[in-house]
């Protein structure tokens, strides 16, 4: 049995624990993933003919992973990809740690655990990695650009946000999109922060009421963790701004949870996209005739995923002027498959270099 197949069999023991973080997968889907990204599931183990030469991919190793603390997903997904390829991993955790990820690493079978080291600080030696995968804000990414030696490949996943487009504002759409908004407390790059709704103002406001009802239902079944004072304060401030704008006839309407900041829906007649305070705060906008940067503003550059209802190719084609990296069905924004091109990049292929023989 090849080294690649042995690793896959070892990883299969982790499938139930990883499903929450990287999606559903099995042996056949991992082999197909390798085939699609590097041409042959066992190409890492031996030379394969490619045209008039023989070639093989070589995983960058060690790989430095700098992960953020908003959700553990980035850490799980990034290290999982490297483990599939057989790389050694140095994982720089946030100072507060990532308990779920650290618990998983501690329970890995030896064949995999020897390939992962974690630290909350950053040893200087780790800067001598062969490649770096960096998650974080613009300042953090810029800092690592300056610290890492020149020539080291960097895969950068900077700040992102996601949106939804509702072409038919019905209750089913509201029930689906609430999952995209509230799961993981709206902390990830795949969390929906704004919803664009096609139709007249009356239809959009009616949908706002449906969404508010679904937000309340979801929170009653899935209470959020106790928010920090700063998180609650940010939501309260955003609500006050919405109330002020509504009082001044600025095309704004507000729905909010009673006696808490558990969820908030704001209708804003202006289509410009702006990040909200998270923590269950979502903004409804009318779907503009031109759905691109010229209408949405500069934040359109940071869109990771657009969830649409109904999900079909015809509706997806209506987003071509924006050309988002990923379009999915509402309710599935936070559940990309392993075949997902993260920020438009091939996730396995970006972690290897190639050698040729001939």
Task: Walk me through the structure.
The chain has 358 residues and is of the alpha/beta class. The chain folds into two domains: 3-159 and 339-357, 3-Layer(aba) Sandwich (Aldehyde Dehydrogenase, Chain A, domain 1), CATH 3.40.605.10; 161-324, Aldehyde Dehydrogenase, Chain A, domain 2. The chain is built from twelve helices and 15 strands. A seven-stranded mixed beta sheet has the order 10-11-12-9-8-13-14, sandwiched between helices. The protein has a five-stranded parallel beta sheet with strand order 5-4-3-6-7, sandwiched between helices. Strands 1-2-15 form a three-stranded antiparallel beta sheet, with no helix packed on it. Helix 8 packs across helix 9. The two termini are 27 Å apart.
Q: What is the strand tally?
A: 15
- Strand % is 15-25%
User: End-to-end span in angstroms?
Assistant: 27 Å
| CATH arch. level architecture of the largest domain | 3-Layer(aba) Sandwich
* Helical content (DSSP H or I, runs of 4+): 25-40%
In short:
This protein is an alpha/beta fold. The protein has helices at 3-12, 15-22, 27-38, 73-85, 99-106, 110-113, 138-147, 171-182, 201-221, 229-247, 293-296, 313-317; strands at 48-50, 53-59, 63-66, 89-92, 116-119, 131-135, 154-157, 161-166, 192-197, 252-256, 264-268, 281-286, 303-309, 326-329, 352-357.
Topology:
Blueprint: H1 3-12, H2 15-22, H3 27-38, E1 48-50, E2 53-59, E3 63-66, H4 73-85, E4 89-92, H5 99-106, H6 110-113, E5 116-119, E6 131-135, H7 138-147, E7 154-157, E8 161-166, H8 171-182, E9 192-197, H9 201-221, H10 229-247, E10 252-256, E11 264-268, E12 281-286, H11 293-296, E13 303-309, H12 313-317, E14 326-329, E15 352-357
Parallel strand pairs: 3-4, 3-6, 4-5, 6-7, 8-9, 8-13, 9-12, 11-12, 13-14
Antiparallel strand pairs: 1-2, 2-15, 10-11
Helix pairs in contact: 8-9
């Amino acid at each position: 049995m090849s080294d690649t197949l042995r690793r896959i069999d070892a990883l299969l023991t982790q499938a139930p624990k990883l499903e929450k973080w990287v999606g559903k997968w099995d042996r056949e889907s991992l082999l197909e993933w390798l085939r699609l990204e590097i041409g042959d599931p066992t190409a890492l183990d031996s030379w394969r003919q490619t045209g008039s030469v023989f070639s093989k991919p070589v995983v960058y190793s060690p790989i430095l992973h700098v992960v953020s603390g908003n959700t553990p997903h980035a850490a799980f997904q990034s290290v999982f990809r490297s483990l599939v390829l057989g790389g050694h991993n140095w994982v720089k955790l946030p100072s507060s740690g990532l308990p779920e990820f650290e618990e998983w690493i501690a329970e890995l079978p030896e064949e995999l655990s020897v390939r992962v080291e974690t630290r909350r600080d950053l040893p200087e030696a780790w800067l001598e990695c062969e490649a770096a995968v960096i998650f974080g804000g613009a300042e953090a990414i810029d800092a690592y650009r300056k610290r890492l030696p020149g020539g080291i490949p960097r895969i950068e996943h900077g700040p992102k946000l996601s949106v939804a487009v509702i072409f038919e504002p019905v209750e089913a759409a509201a029930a689906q999109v609430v999952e995209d908004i509230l799961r993981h407390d709206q902390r990830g790059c795949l969390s929906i922060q704004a919803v664009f709704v096609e139709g007249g103002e009356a239809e959009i406001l009616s949908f706002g009421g449906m969404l508010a009802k679904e937000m309340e239902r979801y929170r009653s079944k899935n209470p959020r963790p106790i928010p920090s004072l700063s998180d609650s304060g940010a939501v309260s401030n955003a609500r006050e701004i919405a109330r002020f704008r509504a009082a001044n006839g600025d095309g704004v309407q507000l729905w909010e949870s009673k006696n808490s900041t558990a969820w908030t829906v704001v209708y804003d007649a202006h289509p410009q996209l702006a990040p909200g305070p998270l923590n269950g705060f979502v903004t409804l906008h009318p779907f503009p005739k031109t759905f691109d940067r010229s209408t949405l503003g500069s934040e359109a550059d940071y869109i990771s995923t657009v969830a649409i209802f109904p999900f079909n190719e015809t509706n997806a084609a209506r987003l071509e002027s924006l050309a988002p990296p990923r379009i999915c069905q509402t309710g599935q924004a936070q559940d990309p498959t392993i075949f997902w091109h993260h920020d438009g990049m091939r996730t396995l292929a970006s972690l290897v270099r190639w050698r040729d023989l001939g």
